[in-house]
Amino acid sequence: MDIKKFVARRKALQISQIKLSAGICTQATLSKFERRGRVPSLAILEQLCARLGLTVDELNEDQASSVTQMRQELDHIERQLMMEDYQVVLQALNRIAVSEIAAVPLRMQYYYLSGLLKSLINGAVSDVCFDFDQILDDLDQTHETVFTPLAYVGLGVMYSRLSELAKAQFYFEKVHQAVKQALVNGDDQDYLRLLTMIFYTAEYEATREDFTTSNGLINDGVSLCSEQHVTYYLPRLKYLATANAIQQCQPDEQIQQLLSETVAFARINHNQVVEVKAAALQRRYLQARKHA
């Protein structure tokens, strides 16, 4: 980000930091941005730029190619995370220096991926909270972007795995509300991230044995996959549907059909993790039937 261009414009217009920041942020926030490169939230930065007759994109013009490259890299990492390839995701994130990511949306994406990965591999609570705090308390203070409910997903996953279900419930209720709103509004432009919210909320509801809510979310996810012609999440959604059906003692024919669909979609998407999990689930199911 070309902060020098920002400062030069402010000085050329003879606008003090106090005057520029009035009603938008504190002078300290503006000073940290100009002197130390600490980028405020996107909403704040857009307002500051507007007062100077600039746009955020203009500050990023000289870094357009590097921004595009970073976006592509983070998008690839995000897809790998959807495929549950945690080791690859960890290695890829470790190669990125977040301090070198100037664009606010990309910084939020990085912290979201880092925080969710740590939640999923049982990372330290303080590390998980630090990553999501960067989004919730700094980069998206007004909670206007998709990264706020995604941060809630990660926090919900973390607390669920710690068996602190009251805290997990607090966050997943927020996520579920965001999902409902997106589906009602037909806001599916960010459909892969919406699928992430749907899946983890459905998984959480299954741990609470609220299979009605869980299965409803699974159906929403499958419908969204069909509408958008994507299959990334189908193996995981079908696996969860199978596990739910077994817990609910559904007919064997239905369970076997779901197992077949799970394996088929896992193979189509080269998702070996789900394929292995489905095979293990089938073995446990068949053994349980023998001893029933």
UniProtKB/TrEMBL annotation:
Transmembrane segments: none annotated. One of its GO terms (molecular function) is DNA binding. It comes from the Bacteria. Pfam families: HTH_3 (PF01381). Keywords: Coiled coil. Residues 42-80 form a coiled coil. The keyword Coiled coil applies. SMART domains: HTH_XRE (SM00530). The keyword DNA damage does not apply. Residues 8-59 form the HTH cro/C1-type domain. This is HTH cro/C1-type domain-containing protein. It comes from Lactiplantibacillus plantarum.
